[in-house]
Amino acid sequence: MDRRYTEDELIAKLFAPLAGPAALGLMDDAALLPPCVNPMVATVDALVAGVHFFPEDPADSIAKKALRANLSDLAAKGAEPIGFLLALALPPDWTNQWLEAFAAGLAEDCKAFGCPLLGGDTVATPGPLTLSITALGEAAQGSFVGRSGARPGDALYVSGTIGDAALGLRLRRDAALRAGLSPKARDYLLERYLLPRPRLALAPLLRTSASAAMDVSDGLVGDLAKLARASRVAARVTTRDIPLSEAAREAIAIDPTLFELALTGGDDYEILFCARGNASEIERLASAASAPCVMIGEIIAGDGETIFLDAQENIMKFNRLSFSHF
After folding, report:
1. Which annotated residues bind substrate (predicted)?
2. Of the N and C termini of the chain, which has fewer Cβ atoms inside 10 Å?
């Protein structure tokens, strides 16, 4: 077995190249950020092997998923990325090769999303691989999009397609379902579980048009309930309007019970938002930004209630609302 990097070596060789000027070459105890003209937005997500990803997942995909989950939160707030902090707890079996692939994946996304590394910490753990990213962003003055601004009369939109990642996770555990899908559908759903697509391109539209927004990370049904409670309103959704990919439709045709999983399973990292105005124009602007969205319902008077109507306009009941850690 080759000698492992020391902590100083892995910082200098693998992570310093990812750092922006504010990180001071990762040679100090903290980063020195220039003052922001606009308010700063901060968000943090922790990922644990065996909970948020499979231990055998590619190292570069794990790195990208961790960063993209945070970038999705920034996008939902209408914020532009500034940089991020990384805390990495490595289990006893880590190798130089694994860490090099992890850093390479992170480097690709740092460049792709304009989000440099600002600093962090690397430690050993006897437990599973654990990593936490804190992302910082900047929102234009007065344009932060919280969860609490929805009002009756707002239309309800969601970006992209819903349920792909949850179905991709099911495929990892269900060989029969995996075998029943076409190769194209199978590969698409598996990739959507591995690699979220943060909708940063939607942030400018949210800043100008959205009254409330959040990213869909724990499942559309449960996350809409969170938004409704925060805004002290109710929401009504027609499920036939929820956007599904061709791959998701193929899986649901094999097993119709998977439709509920698609709506409640989580890991979508799409944007759920409320807005007034011409729906066609909002959808056109989103498509022009390469972040397509569709209207799926409306905000109505109430106090946190959410109503999901099936194709016959009957109220749907769910076994659970969303993914939960506890």
Report:
1. 52, 267, 323
2. C
The residues, ordered by sequence, that sit 6+ positions from 20 with a Cβ below 8 Å of its Cβ are 83, 116, 117, 118
2 is in an annotated binding site: no
Q: What is the DSSP string of 215-265?
A: EESS-HHHHHHHHHHHHT-EEEEEGGGS---HHHHHHHHH-TTHHHHHHHS
73 is in an annotated binding site: yes
29 is in an annotated binding site: yes
Tens of pLDDT, residue by residue over 157-185, are 999 999 999 999 999 999 999 999 999 99
- The annotation status of 199 as a binding-site residue, yes or no, is no
Q: Consult the annotation and say whether 43 binds a ligand.
A: yes
pLDDT for the residue numbered 141: 85
Q: Is 288 exposed, middle or buried (0-12, 13-18, 19+ CB in 10 A)?
A: exposed
255 is in an annotated binding site: no
Q: Is 4 annotated as a binding residue?
A: no
Q: Report the first-to-last Cα separation within the chain, whole angstroms.
A: 39
Quickly state the pLDDT bin for 326 (edges 50, 70, 90). Answer: very low
**φ/ψ of residue 18, rounded to 5:** -90, -10
DSSP 289: T
Q: Cβ contacts of residue 34 below 8 Å, gap of 6+?
A: 22
The residue length of the chain stands at: 326
**Amino acid, single-letter form, for residue 87:** A
Q: Does 238 carry a binding-site annotation? A: no
**Among all chains, which residue has been given the structure tokens 């937005």?**
41
The Cβ-side half-sphere exposure at 294, using a 13 Å CA radius, reads: 12
Domain extent listing, the chain:
7-138, 155-309
CATH fold for the domain made of 7-138: 60s Ribosomal Protein L30; Chain: A; (3.30.1330)
52 is annotated as contributing to ligand binding: yes
Look up residue 1 and give its DSSP letter: -
Task: Tell me yes or no: is domain 155-309 CATH 3.40.50.2300.
Answer: no
Q: Strand 80-90 and strand 117-124: pairing?
A: parallel
Report the candidate in 200, 208, 173 with the shortest Cα–Cα distance to residue 189.
Answer: 173
- Rounded mean pLDDT, 191-211: 95
147 among annotated binding-site residues: yes
pTM of the prediction? Answer: 0.94
